[in-house]
Design brief:
The protein is an alpha+beta fold. 29% of the residues lie in helices and 11% in strands. The chain is built from eleven helices and seven strands. It has helices at residues 2-7, 9-16, 20-31, 63-68, 71-76, 124-140, 214-227, 259-273, 300-303, 307-310, 335-345, and strands at 197-205, 232-235, 250-257, 283-284, 293-298, 324-330, 349-350.
């Protein structure tokens, strides 16, 4: 007992203020070395709160209910049978609306036709965007609106006719001045709509392909080595005698990059290729479509700076390496936000900035 007082002095102070039955049993349980050495007796009043029976012991359905349960008979009794594709594991090829009985699974389901596995890595560019670029972009473009403030009414985007002529009656509204294309509306920037990189399109026009297909094959090999994506050949849509183009002839190759391939391509472009271009001022400030997409070009000499081409330079004939057009698609709705995003990645701009 003296040893217990030395080892557990604080426990004896607590037990002094508790009832005798509680202190004795608690102290014996806490200081017992082996719980299986002697049985523990539990008083009957401590078991009164427990339920006498379990839900697992409930009786099952009677024979009358089980005998009438026949799913096959119920399915045959239907007036309109479900389509056979309803019971197929493979999803439908076409989406026929939300009311069709056979609905495709979500794109995150591996059985979906649109399922894309991954991501398997976390690119450095995406990591920098999530940790640095996105918070900074939110801070730079934040517009504070006090609670209760009502924004002023916006004027109509389409111009109405002034009815100065009887021919103006029942005419549809006109487009904005300077063009008939309506620009995308810019919503206030929140954490839900911070502009992101959507995809990158790399396009190579091969002028020498009009004389033969060898330069087009060489351009496809270069593009596939740079982007790690299968190149797609493009045909000419019109016949232009001055340029030697014929409608339906393969004259270019392109590749669309998404997710990890897009991040790795932009990382090599910004960190390796662009700094090695001599006297390169940057991307022109007017290189945009007013919808958040920026396009710029690279000369054939700049394409040779990619590590995939430089390490195997002897495989590609120098005269068959064409230039390229790089189009960066973003979720921004104007060129100003797109330039701000690409500038944070490391792409400089020069000249007059056109929004």
């Amino acid at each position: 007992m003296a040893l217990r007082e030395i080892l557990f002095p604080h426990l004896h102070r607590q037990l002094a203020t508790r009832p005798s039955w509680y202190s004795a049993r608690s102290f014996s349980l806490s200081t017992r070395r082996n719980a299986s050495s002697e049985p523990i007796t539990v008083a009957q009043d401590e078991l009164d709160d427990l339920e006498p029976s379990s839900s697992l012991m409930a009786p099952g359905p009677n024979e009358a209910i089980t005998s009438t349960f026949n799913p096959l008979k119920q399915s045959r009794r239907r007036r309109r049978q479900l389509p056979p594709s309803r019971y197929q594991f493979r999803p439908p090829r076409y989406y026929r609306g939300p009311l069709h009985p056979h609905q495709p699974p979500p794109t995150s389901n591996p059985s979906s036709r649109e399922y894309i596995p991954g991501p398997f890595t976390y690119p450095r560019l995406l990591q920098t965007y999530d940790s640095t670029i996105a918070p900074d972009f939110m801070t730079l473009t934040y517009t504070h609106v006090p609670p209760g403030q009502r924004s002023p009414p916006r004027p109509p985007r389409l111009r109405l006719w002034d009815d100065s002529s009887p021919y103006h009656k029942n005419r549809p509204p006109r487009g904005p001045r300077g063009g008939d294309v309506l620009r995308l509306l810019r919503r206030p920037t929140t954490f839900r709509n911070i502009p992101r990189l959507a995809r990158v399109t790399v396009h190579m026009f091969v002028n020498k392909a009009k004389d033969g297909s060898a330069p087009l094959h060489a351009a496809g090999m270069v593009l596939q080595a740079i982007t790690s994506v299968r190149a797609t050949a493009c045909v000419a849509k019109k016949t232009i005698a001055t340029w030697g183009l014929r409608e339906g002839k393969y004259m270019a190759v392109k590749a669309d990059l998404f997710a990890e391939d897009m991040c790795y391509f932009l990382s090599r472009l910004v960190d390796v290729v662009l700094p090695r271009i001599k006297d390169w001022p940057g991307v022109k400030g007017s290189a945009g479509d007013s919808s958040g997409n920026i396009t710029f070009g690279l000369e054939p000499e700049a394409v040779k700076f990619f590590p995939e081409v430089e390490v195997n330079y002897d495989m590609y004939p120098p005269e068959m390496i064409p230039g390229m057009h790089v189009t960066i698609h973003t979720t921004a709705t104007n060129d100003r936000d797109a330039r701000l995003l690409l500038g944070a990645i490391g792409i400089p701009f020069y000249g007059k900035l056109v929004d």
